């Protein structure tokens, strides 16, 4: 049998000798011997202490000063340590498993596809079922979202030259105030959910994280537009906040996603389109247009996710129905949309301070509400609800739009 | 029946360690629980009195258990120990630029050691120096770095303080366990190349899990066989076969 040899020259354990030693031992089978030469004076003492810790043996004790090589018998502690390890699924989307925390392995924060040593800590993720969080479109949506990020500072021409009559400016400020409030809810909800989802579903976390980042930018641009010409924000009604609070308390991922993204943000798409159309100034137009692009993605994920769910489990539809009814019951005694917001929308659509213009504006807002209703019904039908049930459910949606 | 073992809480990590063992052993159908002691002495008393069935004993506590048990007409035995606790040595270390070549050269000099009750950091090195003709208090000054007294050397703070004192020139040599010489070199307490080893003790063993004969022999045997089987079979390096502590018993 030929000896396996390693010459460490003057390299000691104080400067990384273990790396070469480890590499040399890796190529041996347990029980095989490695002969280690070296001139570092502490080498023999250190080889022995290191081997003891690492599960290898010294075949014979040596006089530390004798200059003889150390003979190491390869142990198998390093192999044993990984004996029960398992891959946390596969790195690619095809490698996603249905329930990553089902066994005792506790893959937790391990990267998907990593070789996971057993015995890890418990993690707080309670949404661990593929069918509850996954949608095939998530990776593509995330990629699109990541590439579509815009810089609030440069994407909007904040120095655009315009002056609005004070009543119109006031209406813009009021609508922006309302939008900020809603965007804050839309940030908190995915942020709360993503902290509960098992990181195995990496793409969903990424998508929700970007969604939260989208809302962060929306909060910024709407606030900046509100304060562009004045110093004060508009009003916030108790009923509006009541409506948003019911979204925050929805514990189930799918139902929160349904109420927020499919119904709420879905309605917001119409609102933002309306504001784009009736914006009295270029800055208002730009901020609503940018936000609308992002919101469309949020709605797309919500719909795809719920569609996936409903295909897997038809009872999801009855839970959706119950969620809408529950929220309706919780809000039935509240005023719904802040009157100041409603009036501001009319003023923006009117564009002028004459009775005829106001009447036109009022009609436009009525039309907006009808478009929102159509959109909701369309998405509900897409999720498999019969048309009449979709109409019923849409009618129960909060009057606060979101 | 659950095997209840005593362990000394020398560091907060002790809870992590034994909780981990507890969970893992119970997952493998080995009923196990532990109680924590603030010092080894009370743990040994409770072991011999039968209030616990086993104790994770330091070398000194193992000797103490033997003596206490013998005086009560009983006997203790080691059930299991870690392979990493076998064949330890302590080394006598000097600064590279000093003239000392062997332990006897330290005559009339100051040698830093660990805590008063540390076998590896103090007691065994003192005995080693005697064999080299150095008698503490007569022809060599022993300077103790007492950190974590009562923990029988499980706290390495004393050895680290002694190591720093060597580099600072406060003592001419220090005694540390071989693995700590490796550790101090890697972490930078001993800058690379700053020290030389001029002596090494004979190998000795460290902690074991001690049981009292007659208390729960069947449970103990069952536990040992199963634990070793489980560890060998499932991976891990925590527990090895029993025995190996006689050298320490004989040498102390």
Explain the overall architecture.
The complex is a heterodimer of chains A (402) and B (252). Chain A has 15 helices and 6 strands. In chain A, helix 7 runs parallel beside helix 9. In chain A, 58% of the residues lie in helices and 5% in strands. In chain A, the strands form 2 sheets. A 4-stranded mixed sheet of chain A has the order 1-2-4-3, with helices on one face. Chain A starts with a strand and ends in a 6-residue tail after the last helix. By secondary structure, chain A is mostly helical. The model of chain A has no long low-confidence stretch (mean pLDDT 91). Chain A folds into 3 domains: 4-80, Translation Initiation Factor IF3 (2-Layer Sandwich), CATH 3.30.110; 84-123, no CATH class; 130-396, Ribonucleotide Reductase, subunit A (Orthogonal Bundle). Chain B has 252 residues and is α/β, with parallel strands linked by helices. Chain B contains 8 helices and 10 strands. In chain B, the strands form 2 sheets. Chain B has a 5-stranded mixed sheet with strand order 2-1-3-10-4, sandwiched between helices. Chain B has a 5-stranded mixed sheet with strand order 7-6-8-5-9. In chain B, strand 6 (110-113), helix 4 (119-131) and strand 7 form a beta-alpha-beta unit. In chain B, helix 2 (40-48) packs parallel to helix 3 (59-71). Chain B is elongated, with a radius of gyration of 19 Å. Mean pLDDT of chain B is 84; it is low at 234-252. The A-B interface holds A 12-15, 41-42, 45-46, 48-50, 52-53, 55, 61, 64, 77, 79-84, 104, 119 and B 20, 24, 27, 83-84, 86-89, 91, 178-179, 181-182, 185-186, 190, 192-193, 195-197, 200, 203, 234-237.
């Amino acid at each position: 049998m030929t000896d396996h040899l390693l010459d460490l020259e003057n390299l000691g354990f104080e400067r990384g000798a273990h790396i070469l030693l480890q590499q040399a031992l890796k190529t041996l089978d347990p029980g095989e011997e490695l002969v280690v030469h070296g001139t570092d004076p502490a080498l023999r003492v250190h080889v022995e202490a290191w081997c003891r810790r690492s599960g290898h043996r010294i075949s014979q004790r040596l006089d530390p000063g004798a200059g003889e090589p150390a003979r190491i018998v390869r142990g198998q502690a390093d192999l044993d340590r990984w004996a029960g390890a398992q891959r946390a699924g596969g790195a690619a989307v095809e490698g996603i498993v249905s329930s990553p925390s089902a066994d005792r392995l506790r893959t937790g924060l391990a990267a998907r596809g990593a070789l996971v040593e057993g015995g890890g800590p418990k993690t707080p993720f309670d949404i661990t079922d593929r069918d509850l969080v996954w949608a095939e479109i998530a990776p593509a949506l995330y990629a699109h979202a990541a590439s579509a990020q815009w810089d609030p500072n440069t994407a909007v021409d904040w120095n655009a030259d315009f002056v609005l009559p004070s009543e119109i400016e006031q209406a813009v400020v009021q609508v922006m105030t309302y939008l900020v409030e809603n965007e804050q809810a839309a940030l908190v909800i995915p942020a709360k959910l993503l902290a509960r989802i098992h990181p195995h579903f990496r793409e969903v976390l990424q998508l929700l994280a970007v969604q939260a980042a989208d809302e962060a930018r929306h909060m910024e641009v709407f606030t900046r537009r509100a304060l562009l010409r004045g110093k004060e924000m508009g009003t916030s009604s108790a009923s509006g906040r009541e409506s948003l609070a019911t979204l925050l308390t929805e514990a189930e991922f799918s139902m929160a996603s349904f109420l927020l993204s499919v119904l709420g943000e879905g309605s917001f798409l119409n609102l933002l389109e309306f504001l784009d159309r009736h914006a009295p100034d270029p800055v208002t137009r730009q901020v609503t247009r940018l936000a609308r692009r992002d919101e469309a993605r949020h709605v797309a994920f919500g719909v795809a996710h719920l569609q996936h769910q409903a295909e897997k489990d038809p009872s999801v539809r009855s839970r959706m129905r119950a969620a809408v009814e529950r929220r309706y019951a919780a809000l039935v005694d509240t005023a719904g949309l802040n009157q100041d917001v409603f009036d501001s929308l009319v003023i923006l659509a009117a564009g002028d301070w004459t009775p005829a213009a106001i009447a036109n504006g009022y009609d436009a807002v009525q039309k907006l509400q009808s478009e929102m209703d159509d959109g909701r019904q369309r998405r509900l039908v897409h999720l498999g609800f019969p048309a009449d049930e979709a109409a019923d459910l849409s009618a129960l949606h909060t009057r606060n739009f979101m | 029946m659950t095997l209840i073992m005593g362990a000394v809480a020398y560091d907060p990590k002790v809870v992590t360690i034994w909780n981990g063992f507890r969970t893992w052993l119970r997952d493998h159908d080995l009923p196990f629980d532990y109680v924590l002691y603030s010092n080894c002495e009370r743990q040994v008393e409770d072991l011999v009195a039968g209030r616990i069935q086993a104790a994770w004993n330091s070398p000194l506590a193992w000797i103490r258990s033997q003596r206490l048990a013998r005086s009560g007409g009983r006997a203790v035995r080691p059930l299991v120990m870690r392979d990493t606790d076998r064949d330890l040595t302590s080394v006598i270390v000097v600064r590279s630029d000093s003239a000392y070549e062997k332990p006897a050269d330290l005559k009339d000099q100051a040698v830093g050691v660990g805590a008063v009750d540390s076998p590896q950091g103090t007691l065994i090195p003192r005995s080693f120096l005697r064999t080299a003709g150095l008698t503490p208090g007569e022809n060599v000054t022993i300077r103790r770095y007492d950190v974590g007294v009562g923990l029988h050397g499980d706290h390495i703070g004393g050895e680290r303080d002694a190591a720093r004192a060597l580099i600072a020139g406060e003592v001419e040599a220090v005694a540390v366990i071989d693995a700590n010489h490796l550790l101090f070199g890697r972490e930078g307490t001993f800058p690379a190349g700053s020290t030389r080893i001029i002596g090494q003790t004979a190998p000795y063993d460290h902690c074991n899990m001690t049981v009292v004969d007659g208390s729960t022999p069947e449970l103990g045997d069952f536990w040992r066989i199963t634990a070793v089987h489980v560890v060998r079979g499932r991976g891990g390096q925590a527990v090895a076969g029993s025995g190996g502590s006689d050298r320490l018993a004989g040498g102390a």
